[in-house]
Predict the structure.
Amino acid sequence: MDSADTLTPKSGLPAAAVAALKGRGVSMAVAHRFVSDQREAFDDGWGGPAVGADGLPDRPPPPTTQVRLETVRSALCENDSPDIFFERSVNPYRGCEHGCVYCYARPTHSYLNLSPGLDFETRIIAKQNVVEVLADEITRPGYRPTLVNVGSATDCYQPAERELRLTRGVVELLGRAGHPLALITKSSGVERDLDLLAPLAARRLAAVYVTITTLDARLARILEPRAAAPHRRLRTIRALAEAGVPVGVSVAPQIPFVNEDMEQVLEAARDAGARSAFYTVLRLPWELDPIFRAWLQQHYPDRAARVMARVQDTHGLTDTERAEGRSYRSDFASRMKGQGLWADLLRQRFAKACARLGLNRERTELDLQQFRPAAVRGQHSLF
């Protein structure tokens, strides 16, 4: 890690300007909070970087994506957060190649001794035995079904899924057990599994939510560079709806002065077949704060300070909290929707748009009564 990868102690911003990497959300390997040392560039007298024909220093080739297989001991993650609609989740992958710069899951790579920056989107961990472990967990005596969300932390249909098919295995397993599930994704790859999802939806066992942060293709390319283009996600919503799968749209996160087309996204998603919607505001835990600030300096230097000030406004931070370097409040009561004047205005915009478009008029209720764990082991039920 050279000086461009370290963080300055006062601001948390990169110590030196780093050029954006095409096709990547982050261009630096931000040091994580558990690292014990940091490295800085030092001139050892052997000369500087090689210079190309254009007279500029040659840059190393762009980093490639590495997928590492991991054997896990648990698949289900229990959730007791009152501001999240599901109690259990399954994530077949850790890290996400989509590279969304705002992803709240980035700091989890710190637990792997990897950077929440570039490593998060180039060092992907695939839980190769997730289906077998999940089968064991849902067939244990005393297990009681509740909605399982697939892909709550990292996208379950990111590029690695095309070959590994771990998400498909999870959907097959839960479907065989009659266990309700909800998927959330930015990928058109979910259409591959319509042969599984459509029959499950007909039995009220499956729903899908597609995230569309903006309709602006140029913005999407730098905000979430390896996710499906906005128009392609709209086609996915249409394909799901036409197949009879209940589909909703997530317009999250809302980033002030960056993605300002929430109403247009909601209308386009409704026209494509979405019948429900939700949103969250931008939240910046741990290392995500300096990562996002660096992204702003790369792509929107003229408005970076304005964006961050409004993010802090949306979370209702006091002057003292701002002076301490805080960017959001992490308490359950306000972290998702914010608080204060600007959060209220955003809430009103969303509510009025949904009312006008007829979104969220009916709640999608999945059926918990069809759960038959014996079917997972190939046994037949008497009922």
